[in-house]
Amino acid sequence: MSDAELVGRLRQGEEAAFAELFDAHHATIVRLAMAFVKSPSIAEEIAQDTWVAVIDSLDTFEGRAAIKTWIARIAINRAKTRAVRDGRQVPLEDEEQPSVDPSRFGSFGQFRSAPAKWDDTPEMLVSRGEVREAIDHAIEDLPAPQRAVVTLRDLHGWSSEEVCNALDLSESNQRVLLHRGRGRLRAALEAVLK
Amino acid sequence: MSCLQTVEAMTDASEGALMGWRKVRYRVHITICPYCRAHRRQVETTIDTVKGLPPPTVDESARSEAIGAFLRKHSV
């Protein structure tokens, strides 16, 4: 269903259309909010506030952006405001760091030893509790900008263009954040597979 | 291109953002370096594992509260 059709049904007050919208985007909103506020219960509160704002503003939605981008922007604004109110610093700049431990490379930038071959498939890995836990922790530890990008790109399958629109990032900045975020998750997985 | 530079260029490569000589040097290095190919497989496995994580469970009360707010808005 196109955004225009969905918005039409929502404006007519169709409950099933709203339930569909909620089911499609609630988890994304909660996970996005977690990038800024960390606490799951506060993230749920932000998600509720976001839905209230979405409901109140549906009549003013102009369809210039995709509805999911519009909802994400509302959620991010609310999460940032809440983080500031709670005294949490939301870094606007990302920390610069290499994606692989520099000690793994020799003086000419060559790998000192072969990266391990991982035998398990992603399906096998995701079925292991300690792997899920390690990745969850690594995601929690990501700086907010990296976490927001990884959340949308890898956990929710958004395109780079959608992520740039939702987070107000340039394509190149989005790639840098994605690269660093994925780098940290790879390192976390490597640590658990040793 | 060194292994270090190749590793740092991997996301640009997978996003189709490598251009010109950097792209050529990346391709040459990946072709001849088994270590960088092994690292790239680790990155790909990581991404696919993250993509396979189960979605968080939705709080049913949050769902009914939001639907309730929607219906109230449209009943006035």
In short:
Chain A is mainly alpha-helical and 194 residues long. Chain A has helices at 3-11, 15-37, 40-57, 67-85, 122-126, 129-141, 144-155, 160-167, 171-193.
Structural Rg of chain B: 23 Å
Order of helices and strands of chain B: HHHHH
The number of helices of chain B is: 5
Low-confidence stretches of chain B: none
Helix content of chain B: over 70%
Mean of all residue-level pLDDT scores of chain B: 94
Percent in helix of chain A = 55-70%
Span between termini of chain B:
66 Å
Mind describing the biggest β-sheet of chain A? none
Q: Total domains of chain B, how many?
A: 1
Structural class of chain A: mainly alpha
For this entry, give a set of tags.
heterodimer, A: 194 residues, mainly alpha, 9 helices, 67% helix, B: mainly alpha
Describe the protein in words.
The complex is a heterodimer of chains A (about 190) and B (about 80). In chain A, about 65% of the residues lie in helices and about 0% in strands. Chain A contains 9 helices and no strands. Chain A is elongated. The N and C termini of chain A lie far apart (about 45 Å). Helices cover about 75% and strands about 0% of the residues of chain B. With about 80 residues, chain B is mainly alpha-helical. Chain B has one domain. Chain B contains 5 helices and no strands. The longest helix of chain B is centred in the middle third of the chain and has 18 residues. Chains A and B meet through helix 2, helix 3, helix 5, helix 6 and helix 7 of A and helix 1, helix 2, helix 4 and helix 5 of B.
